Amino acid sequence: MFRYIIKRVLLAIVTVFIIAAITFFTMNAIPGGPFASEKAPSPEVQRVLEERYNLDKPVPEQFILYLKNFLSGDLGVSLKTGRSIGTVIGESFPISARLGGMAALLATIAGLVLGSIAALKRNTIIDRMIVFVTTLFTAVPSFVLATMLLYVFCIALQWVPVFSANETHYTLPVIALALYPMAYITRLTKTSMLDALGQDYVRTANAKGVAGWKVIFKHALRNAVIPVITYVGPMLAYILTGSLVVENIFTIGGLGSKFVSSITNRDYTMIMGTTMFLAILMVTMNLITDIVYSIIDPRIKLD
User: Fold this and answer.
1) Of 23, 60, 123, 148, which has the highest C-beta tally within 10 A?
2) Is the pTM of this model over 0.90?
3) Helices 85-120 and 168-197 meet at what angle, rounded to 10?
């Protein structure tokens, strides 16, 4: 396993480097710049600013300088506000992590429960209703759901305030982020559970008179949950990246709003800082997911 982890870490480093290169060169290839706006400074001031932030150098040289600073732990400062990127991420990410964590927990628990019920009630009206609802949620993007929830519950019914500092402010964003992964986990759990219920060890347990709930949770669900674990890593990445737009819709003020505003303002350092942070988080979650495989199912060997 140690060799496998080393291999995956090296692959993760290469992946992050490729993401950084694509983001950096694509960002600089778009016409305009962080200081080109309706209230652009004078040419002299703009030249001084470009020298201050190394924007007067060739793009490949800028990229090398950025990588050197990044490896030393310096993410730079915002070209618009002058604040440290590390400080902005440190203040904003806990909000996004809280929102994403609640959405992931809701999606996983609800998906496992609904998927198990659909498998146990196969070809019944309950199964068909679950399949219909999950298919519907799978087809609708999170930002569309967020807009619909905002209109129905905040504007039409006025059950939830558009902005609130208390826990009710997280209710609608969590639902908007959780519905798609919940639907996917439901369908995944149902398929895996049906396969597990047809295995010999389940039939043997039933023949021995083992309690039904123990057969389901100890034998069938334990093996059926492995594909769900496979999806958990990408799901967390999806929720965090999907929350970028959802946070903006509900004005939560997490990392997503900073990322969206940085693109609008052409804040190069903020774009790179948030992109690198999310890329590292994504590859880390995928690595942890692979390691958890062998803990849940010892038959899986990592090479």
Assistant:
1) 23
2) no
3) 40
